[in-house]
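Exercise (ungraded).
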Amino acid sequence: MTTDLSPGAPPGDEWDGVASAGTANAALYLELDGWEGPLDLLLDLARRQKVDLRRISILDLVDQYLTYIERAEALRLELAADYLVMAAWLAYLKSALLLPREEQEDPSPEELALRLQLRLQRLGAMREAAARLIARDRLGRDVFARGAPEGLRVDRRNRWQCEWFDLVRAYGDVKVRAEPVVHMVRERMVMTLDSALSRVSAMLGVALDWMELREFLPPPREGEWADPRLRRSALASSFVAALELARTGQAQLAQDEIFGPLRLKAVRG
Amino acid sequence: MSAPEPQRPDELVRAVEATLFAAGQPMTAEAISTHLGGADVGEALAELQRHYARRGVHLVERGKRWHFETAPDLAHLLRREREEVKRLSRAATEVLAIVAYHEPVSRAEIEAIRGVQTAKGTLDVLMEAGWVRIVGRREVPGRPVIYATTPDFLTHFGLASLRELPGIDELRAAGLLDPVDDAQIELALGKPDDTGVTTAAWDEDSAEAELPIGLASPGQSG
Amino acid sequence: MSAPEPQRPDELVRAVEATLFAAGQPMTAEAISTHLGGADVGEALAELQRHYARRGVHLVERGKRWHFETAPDLAHLLRREREEVKRLSRAATEVLAIVAYHEPVSRAEIEAIRGVQTAKGTLDVLMEAGWVRIVGRREVPGRPVIYATTPDFLTHFGLASLRELPGIDELRAAGLLDPVDDAQIELALGKPDDTGVTTAAWDEDSAEAELPIGLASPGQSG
């Protein structure tokens, strides 16, 4: 029953020794590499009953499977765990099917057997379907598409659209964006750095001792210089002028404490 | 030479004929129509199909896409030079059939039918061939990806649609294509305890614990 | 359809038809014959050529080699142009406006006016649209190419000449220069007086003269 289980399929490398061992039963031919798992082996065994899968004898099938596994073990073949697990499960199923049942288990052994049968049917159906599918007239094997199609090309051409208003509006936006770059605040009176520099420099030339920075500013009585905003500008410009004179070695700067009066004195060469 | 002067076909028919001859890929009627400036090509396709039905080249529709191919009865003349078609392993063939007959289907569902783990490479081979693709995820815990066939699958195997799969009606009628995650068909598998007696225990929650799927691949059975 | 039932061609004709259809290259009559087991294919080729003469695909012989090709009168179907109407991007519109108002103008000048770099693609789009062209090179170091508008530009925008584009004053009157508060954007170009006081003053003319290429830096205004 278990002889010649996989006709035609050459044994894998690891089975060479077994196949050529010339064991007790020369016809015994075990080739687990050929099976895609225990379900596959079961299906093949079921097919050997040569009956419709719906009418197979599960008990016979279990016997065949267990015999197969026993023979493999007798030959000291190392079986994958799943084959052994299936064997154990089938052994249980067999005993459950044979023994008189006192209490009804759920699911019953008959139901388990039915499920196994259904699974084999499903796998069998797919195996057959695969064979029929693969045997169809296949494009590139049995039927052929045009060998040298010219190919279709679609060149996309853009037609650009723009309205007159969008164009003019865009120019307006560019102008608006560009102008602020050169803007100054209107009618803001300032003392420029240049004028502060010449004023401080001139006054320093005639001063004899340290002078406080504020003394260099134009006197507030002189008309527009009374404007506090202009005075702030003059102070800032004079401070920068003082720093510039110190940097160029024309003046010394001194401050005794933070926020204290800033004093200035000419450096005499 | 004795044949009567062939009728000149309609200009639209000629245009559809030329377009499909020149196309490198199968085309849907919509794509042909778009290419031809929006003409209704349904009649033209039907006429072409009828014209070519008895010739050495046929016009066929596969999954809503049309292409010309050589007549199947001439396969024996043409087959010899060409061995471009990939040979699929048995596992890949089986997985392809399961995807086609059950789509969309997850890997776990494929494995439930085959009773073994499916090597990652098997699905990759089918996807690389352009016959199978991922079409989404099943909204169940773990959100497994699900697979289905492509239009190229139909084209390659000469199927107008999946309804033409061999024997699909019989299989469906026999209930062999019912969803595979149906808990009622799952087998329970217990572990052998230390007395050596195996106890079957149905685990409602665990489809994994079910039949000996994926305990070891056949190759490991050294 | 109304056409009579097409005759089934001779088997050899069908075989030759399929062979040539599937061939990757034009084939000589001898090669076809060899492929088909030595049959004399001359008649079959002649009949096929006659059959296809009025169809969308022709069987042609070139230098003793036979192949199918799209009918010459349908060759235009192989390469179609599809026009897509696209709106000019904002950047492209600005560049186009600058070219129109300042032509001829170099890319560097356009960038100086816009205050941002102009992607090369933007000018390419305008040239593709047929509104801008290269009109020469500026005789300055680097000899940059300079751009100007085309007659198509005038046609598209319905202008008799560029002088019809609204001037700055008209733009202002139309509120197109309004977005920012006037006081914030006015220029001060006063001179320091002898007391060292600078008075900022709005210069009405400066808006005209403002071609902001090489914008005056604020430091120069002191």
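Further reading is listed at the end of the chapter. For now, observe: Residues 109-134 of chain A form the longest helix (26 residues). Residues 1-29 of chain A have pLDDT under 50 and may be disordered.
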